[in-house]
Amino acid sequence: MANFPFQKLQAELGELLKKYPNGSRLPSEPDLAKMLGVSRATLREAMRMFETQGQIRRRQGSGTFVVGTPTIIDDGLEILESMLTLARRTGQNVGPGPVEILEITADSETASQLEIAEGSEIVRIARTMSADTRPVAYLVDELPSEVLSADELKTKFNGSVLDFLIKRGDPLTISYTNITAVNASTQVAKKLEIQRGDVLLQFTAKLYTASGRVVDYSHSYFLPGYFNFHIVRRVEKNSL
Asked: How far is it, in rounded angstroms, from Cα 182 to Cα 185?
């Protein structure tokens, strides 16, 4: 029952948002807090849920705007495919934003995951994915330099490391992926234009070739309001 007042506030805020057309600017935080009878700090915390769900968007220096219910990318995880391929297949307007390509040395964590020596040269590719100009995902891939060079990416990269490797003919087989809920770090929050600490869906994956070599270690962060992933699992018949 301790959270009931906060849940009530979120319900009231949700009803209030329905009264504003998509694209319209909400009253200022002080005015909105006064309307709802709460402090600005409490209001800001309640608004975070609607922001991560994609229903509102804060613009520095301009205010908070109503987006409405976003188009959700809904798909299963049984087959590995890039977000760009998924978006094209489902008719969603999702595309890559600015790409950052760096040549760095592997720290102990990355080296361990890629099964290479610490300090080995790797290439790091980081970029956002946007839906109708709104950043909805932040993707980071790290690969050994002998697998993929920065120079090769600078002329042929379209936003998807997976698509690039497939088109090149690399013998990829499986991806081992951990799925967790995480709080956005300062860096990721900035990329996704949300508040630090907001909850995101994180995929941490290792991509393998037919020989069992790890060729890509990646972290993908998704705004939960824009994605609905599911898994279809078969029922195993027992022997009883």
From this structure: 9
User: How far is residue 161's CA from residue 78's CA, in Å, rounded to a whole number?
Assistant: 19
- Cα radius of gyration (the chain): 21
Choose among 111, 124, 107: nearest CA to 187: 124
**What is the pTM assigned to this prediction?**
0.77
| pLDDT 10s digits, 33-80 | 888 888 888 888 888 778 777 778 777 777 888 876 666 677 777 888
Instruction: Report how far Cα 177 is from the mean position of its chain's Cα atoms.
Output: 14
Give all strands (DSSP E) within 106-168, no chain letters: 121-131, 134-144
d(CA 56, CA 70): 10
Torsion of CA 73, 79, 82, 86, to 10 degrees: -40
Instruction: Specify whether the CB–CB gap between 182 and 202 falls below 8 A.
Output: yes
What residue ranges define each of the domains in the chain, with the CATH number in brackets? 4-66 (1.10.10.10), 73-230 (3.40.1410.10)
> If 0-12 CB within 10 Å is exposed, 13-18 middle and 19+ buried, where does residue 217 land?
buried
List per-block mean pLDDT (blocks of 10 residues) for the chain, which spans 240 residues.
68 84 86 87 81 75 76 75 80 83 96 97 94 87 95 85 94 95 94 87 96 97 85 73
